[in-house]
Amino acid sequence: MKKKWFSLWCLAFLSLLITNFAFAQDPSGANTGTIADIPAAVAGQPTLEEVAAVAGHNKIAINFVWILIAGFLVMFMQPGFAMVETGLTRAKNVAHTMAMNFMIYPLGMLGFYICGFAFMFGGLGALGTLGGYAGLNHEFTINLFGKSFGLFGTKGFFLSGSAYDVAVFSLFLFQMVFMDTTATIPTGAMAERWKFLSFFIYGWFVGTVIYPIFGNWVWGGGWLAMLGQNFGLGHGHVDFAGSSVVHMTGGVMALVGAWLLGPRLGKFNRDGSPNPIPGHNIPMAVIGTFILAFGWFGFNAGSTLAGGDLRIGVIATNTMLASATGAVAATLWMWLVRTKKPDPSMMCNGMLAGLVAITAPCAFVNSLSACLVGLIAGVLVVESVFFIEGKLKIDDPVGAISVHGVNGAWGCLALGLFADGTYGEGFNGVAGAVKGLFYGDPSQFIAQCIGITSNIIYVGLVSLIVFKLIDVLVGNRVEPEAEIQGLDIPEMGVPGYAGVKLDKHSETPISQEVFSRDE
Q1: Where are the beta strands (DSSP E) in 121-161?
Q2: What pTM, to 2 d.p., does this model score?
Q3: Is the per-residue pLDDT at 291 higher than 60?
Q4: DSSP 3-state assignment of 276?
Q5: Cα(316)–Cα(148) distance, rounded to whole angstroms?
Q6: Residue 26 in domain
Q7: Inter-residue contact 435 to 423 (CB < 8 Å)
Q8: What is the DSSP string of 64-88?
Q9: I need a labelling partner for 149 at 20 to 30 A (CA). Which of 425, 450, 455, 514 fits?
C-alpha cells in the first residue's frame, strides 16, 4: 500500500514538472500571445500577410472593446445624475425628479436613433480607429467667403443603409450616452415645477435636433471643426470630450428653460431676496456625485476612441486631479468667503464643476494646468450660483446652469489657454499638435471663443423656440396647487416615499409613527 501511494506521489510530481516545463509561467504578461495563437500557424508557418491581418484585427478589436466599456461607464452616470438632482430637491418631488432622469434615457435615445445620429455624424467620413469604415460620408454644406461650411450630416438615419456596420453601431452607443448626459442637465435646473408632459416632448427634441446639430459642427466635421483649415484658427474649435458639445449645450438649455418656467413658489421674497430651499437628502447627492466622477473616466478617456492610445493615462489622471481641486476650492470658498460654512452640496458641485471644466482640455494639458482648471472651476461655480440666483433671479434647484453651462464655457477657454503642444497631431486636419495661447498659438483661443459664442446663440435660440412651442401646445409649468402639494401624486400618481408622511415645515420624510405621535 505504501509503495502504491509513493508511486502516485511521484507520478503527480513528475506531471507537475512536465507542466511547468511545457507551459512556462509569465507573471509579467510579456510572453503571452505568440505566433502559435494565429490560426494559420496550426497548418504551418503563417505568411506575413496573415500575421498582419490578425494583428490589425486585434488592434481594432481593442478599440471596439475600449469604447464600448467607456460607453457603459458613461451610461452608469445616469443614476448619478438622478441621485444628485433628487437629493438636492424636496422629498415631495422625489418620484417626479427620478422619473425625468429615468425617461430622458429612452426618449433621447430613440430620437438620436431616428435622426439625431445622422445629423451629427452622417458626414464624418472614415472612422480611423474603428477600422476605417467610410459609409458616413455626406455632409450638407453651404459655401461662404469661398469656404465650405458643414451644417449637418445626411447618412445614418435609423442606423440603416450604409450605417449598418459594426463600427457605426459601436460609435452610436458611445455617442448616444453623451447625448443622454446633455439631455438630463435641464431636469435639475427645471425640477419641482416642470410639467411631465412638457418634459416628455422636450426629450424628443433634444435627441433629434438641439444636441446633434451643434455636435456636428464640432465633432462631425462641421464648420467649427474646420475653422483651422479654412481660416487658420488653430485646430478649429477643439472640445476633446464635451465641455461645449455636452455640458454647455445642456447648461444653455437649462438656463432658457428655468428662465421661462420662473422660480419655484416661495423662492423669492417681494424685495427679490432669495429664500433657501434645501434638498432633502444630502447623502443621496454625495453618492450620486461619486457615481458621476467614476463614470467620467469613461467620458474623457473613452473619447480617444482607441484603447491603444496611451494618452488615456494622462487624460484619466488629469480628470481625477481637476475633480479634486474643484471640490476643495468650492469648499474653501464657501467656508472662508461666502457662508463661513463648508456646504456639502457645494462640495459636490465643486467636484462636478472641475470635471466639466477639464472635459475639453483633458487630453491637451499637463497635470499642473489640470489642477488650475479645477481650482478656478470650484470658485467659479460658487460665484455663478450666487450671481444667477441673486442677480438674475433665476431659480436653479441643483446649480446645473453654473456647473455645466458656466464651467463648460470655462473648460473650452482653458483649452485655448493651457494646451501645451504635446498631443493632438493632425487634430481636425491641421498639422502639428494643439497649442493654446500660453504655449504660442493665440488663434486657438480665438477658435474656442467662436465655439462658445456659437453654442450660446444656436442652443439658446433653438431651445427658446422649442420651449415656447411646447408651452403653447401643452404648457410648461404645473398648476400652483400641484406644486404646493408636490408633483409626485398630481403628476406621477405615486409618492416617492410610499408609506411615509412629510413634515409640513421641513418637508423631510419622517415615519408614520413619529408623525402621529407629534400630532
Answers
A1: 139-144, 147-153
A2: 0.91
A3: yes
A4: coil
A5: 35
A6: no
A7: no
A8: HHHHHHHHHHHHTHHHHHHHHHHHT
A9: 425
Q: Can you read off the three cell numbers belonging to residue 378? A: 470650484
Give the chain's domain count.
Answer: 1
Rounded Cα distance between 330 and 333, Å, is 5
- The answer to whether 457 and 213 are in contact (CB under 8 A) is no
Over residues 247-262, the mean pLDDT reads 98
C-alpha cell of 136?
A: 458616413
CB atoms within 10 A of CB 144: 10
The range of the structural domain enclosing residue 445 comes to 60-481
Give, as one character, the DSSP assignment of residue 402: I
Cα–Cα–Cα angle for 153, 156, 161, nearest 5°?
135
Q: What is the mean pLDDT of residues 4-14?
A: 58
- The answer to whether the beta carbons of residues 124 and 217 sit under 8 Å apart is no
Q: How far is CA 87 from CA 81, 191, 285, 346, 383, in A?
A: 10, 12, 5, 13, 22
CB count, 10 Å around CB of 20?
Answer: 10
* Alpha-carbon torsion angle 362, 130, 128, 141, nearest 10: -90
Whether 294 is covered by a domain: the verdict is yes
- Computed over every residue of the chain, the mean pLDDT equals 92
Residue 187: name the closest of 83, 268, 116, 323 by CA: 83
Over 90: is that where the pLDDT of 396 sits? yes
Size of the chain in residues: 519
DSSP bridge pairs for 420: 435
Residue 343 gets which letter from DSSP? -
- Distance in angstroms (rounded) separating the CA atoms of residues 80 and 71: 15
CA 23, CA 32: separation in Å to the nearest integer?
10
Query: In 435-517, at which residue ranges do the beta strands (DSSP E only) sit?
Result: 501-502, 509-510
Cα distances (angstroms) measured from residue 160 to each of 112, 113, 136, 166? 13, 10, 11, 12
**Helix, strand, or coil (residue 488):** helix
Domain annotation covers residue 13: no
Per DSSP, the three-state class of 509 is strand
Answer yes or no: is 492 within a domain. Answer: no
Q: Which residue has the cell 427645471?
A: 190
The three cell numbers locating residue 480: 400652483
Cβ neighbour number for residue 333 with a 10 Å cutoff = 22
| The three grid cell numbers given for residue 505, joined into one nine-digit string | 415645515
Which residue in 444, 74, 128 sits closest to 247, CA to CA? 74
- Cβ pair 501, 510 in contact under 8 A: yes
For the stretch 324-370, pLDDT in tens is 999 999 999 999 999 999 999 999 999 999 999 999 999 999 999 99
Q: Domain containing 197 — which CATH number? A: 1.10.3430.10
